[in-house]
C-alpha cells in the first residue's frame, strides 16, 4: 500500500541526533529522505562509539534508517549547484547545523525561499532565534540544563541531574516533525512554504511544563504537597528536585523487590492513586488501613508516606518485580517493573508490535533498533537499514539529470 508521505521529498541536512530523529520518522511514514553528507566523512555519528571496526556505528544506524545518502560538498561551487537543483525539486529541507552555518554556506531562508517558494525549511537550534543565547552550539545535556529538566531531576541532596531520555535531541526532533507536517498541511491551503524552527531549550521546557506549574504554586503557597520535602523538609523559592516522586497529584516511588541487594534493577514503580486506596490496602493485606483516619485520605497519608512505602517494600520483599506487578495489576494499581535495556531488547510484546526491530545491514549484519512508536491501523512502518556513506549519490544525481560523465567530473573535483 502507499504510505501517507510518499511523494514528499526531503533534503536531510541533519547530523548527530536531533535532526536525524525527525527525518527518520518522516522516512518511516513514506517520505523520500535524502541525507546530504560531507564526502569522505559524512555524519560524525558514523564514527562515534563504534563497536565494529569499519562499519557504521549504531549511533548512526539507529537514527538514519529508511534514508538515502548523497555525498556533497556544499561549500564547493559545483556542490552548491547540485544542492540548488535538489532544492528546486524538494518539498522540505531539514537542518540542525550550528547557528549561522546555513547562511554562511549561502543558503539563507531568503535564498531558499527564492529558489523554491513552496519548500518548507525546518531547523533545530539550541536556542530560539533572538534568544540571548542564540549563538550557542548545543548538545543534549546542555539543552536539558537550559530547559529546566536538570534543575528538577535527581535527589534534593545531590546535584542537578541529566535524564537518560533524549529530551533535548530526539524530543526536539519529534517537535520538528510535527511542525513540518503542519507546514505541509498549511502549504496545501496556501501553496506557500514556510520556515519552521524548533529550539532544544523550548522542547525540553515543553516537557517540563508541570515544573513551571509547580514554580507558580510554590510562589503562591510556599510548599508543594506532593514532594518528599512536604511536610517535614524545607522549601526554598525554586522548584526542588523531587527524587522519584510522582509529577501529578498521585504520590509514587521506586520500591525495592526481592533481590534488590544484588540486582540494581529489582524495583517497581508504585503509584498510590487516591481513589484506589481501598484496593491497595486489599492487595497489601492491610484492610485495617482502609478506614483508619491516619491513612484514609491523601492528605492524612502524606506526612507518613515514606512509612507507607516501607510497609509496601516489606510486602514486596519475597516477590520479584514481575511477580509483584502480576499481583498488583489484578487490583488495578498503576505500577510497572523497572525494566533494563536487556529486558526491553528481548521483550516479546515489543518485538511483536514492531517497537523493537531487528534490521539487516550490509556491513554490520543485523542490529536492533527502536521502530515507530506510533502505530496506525492501515500502515505498519517498515524499518530498513541506514545507508552507507554516499550509497545513493549516483542514483540521486541521475534523478537530477546528471549524466555519467558529469557525475565523474563532480567526483574529480571532490564535490561528491
Ligand atoms: N559540505 C560542506 N560543509 C558542510 C557540509 C557539507 N555537506 N555539512 C556541514 N558542513 C559544514 C557547515 O557548513 C559548517 O561549516 P562552518 O561552521 O564553517 O560554517 C560545519 O560543517 C560545521 O557545522 P556545525 O556547526 O553544525 O558542526 P559542529 O560539529 O561544530 O557542531 C552541533 C555540532 C550539534 C553542536 C551544532 O551543529 C549545533 O549546535 N546544532 C544545532 C543544535 C543541535 O541540533 N544540536 C543537537 C545535536 S544532537 O546532540
Automatic annotation (TrEMBL):
The active site is at residue 169. Transmembrane segments: none annotated. SUPFAM superfamilies: CoA-transferase family III (CaiB/BaiF). CoA binds at residues 15-18, 38, 72-75, 96-98, 104, 137-140. This is Formyl-CoA:oxalate CoA-transferase. It comes from the Bacteria. It catalyses: formyl-CoA + oxalate = oxalyl-CoA + formate. It is an enzyme of class 2 (transferase). The keyword Transferase applies. Keywords: Transferase. Homodimer. It comes from Paraburkholderia metrosideri. Substrate binds at residues 248-250. Pathway: Metabolic intermediate degradation; oxalate degradation; CO(2) and formate from oxalate: step 1/2. Belongs to the CoA-transferase III family. Frc subfamily. GO terms for molecular function: formyl-CoA transferase activity.
